[in-house]
């Protein structure tokens, strides 16, 4: 049984792992626990979502912990587009 990928969200003042708030220094431990037993590379993918106002040093700290925990980072970027609605 394959679970969905782990999602880490970075907010200006918070870090969420699968929607649960965690302290920045606890990200590695949480990712290790979530990836335990997953040996295939595709099962170790961690989706990282980051708000635009997250300081760069916070982003580096969290992504380094994910990599140290054995996670493979992929970024989810928000697309911004303008839609014209006929009136």
Can you describe this structure?
The chain is 25% helix and 26% strand. It contains two helices and five strands, in the order βββαβαβ. The protein has helices at 27-35, 56-68, and strands at 6-11, 14-17, 20-22, 45-50, 72-75. A five-stranded mixed sheet has the order 3-2-1-4-5, covered by helices on one side. α1 (27-35) packs parallel to α2. The chain is globular. The relative contact order is 0.23. The model has no long low-confidence stretch (mean pLDDT 89).
Structure at a glance:
The protein has 2 helices and 5 strands, in the order βββαβαβ.
Number of helices: 2
Question: What sequence of helices (H) and strands (E) makes up the elements?
Answer: EEEHEHE
Strand arrangement across the biggest beta sheet: 3-2-1-4-5
Sheet having the most strands: 5 strands, mixed
Estimate the strand proportion.
25-35%
Average residue pLDDT:
89
Shape: globular
**Structural class determined from secondary elements:** alpha/beta
Total strands: the figure is 5
Helix content: 25-40%
List keywords for this structure.
87 residues, alpha/beta, five-stranded mixed sheet, 2 helices, 5 strands
């Amino acid at each position: 049984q394959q679970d969905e990928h782990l999602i880490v969200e970075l907010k200006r003042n918070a870090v969420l792992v699968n929607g649960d708030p965690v302290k920045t220094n606890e990200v590695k431990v949480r990712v290790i626990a979530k990836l335990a037993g997953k040996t295939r590379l595709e099962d170790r993918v961690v989706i990282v979502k980051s708000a635009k106002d997250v300081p760069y040093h916070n982003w580096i700290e969290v992504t380094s912990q994910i990599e140290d925990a054995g996670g493979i980072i992929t970024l989810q970027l928000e697309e911004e587009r303008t839609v014209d609605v006929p009136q």
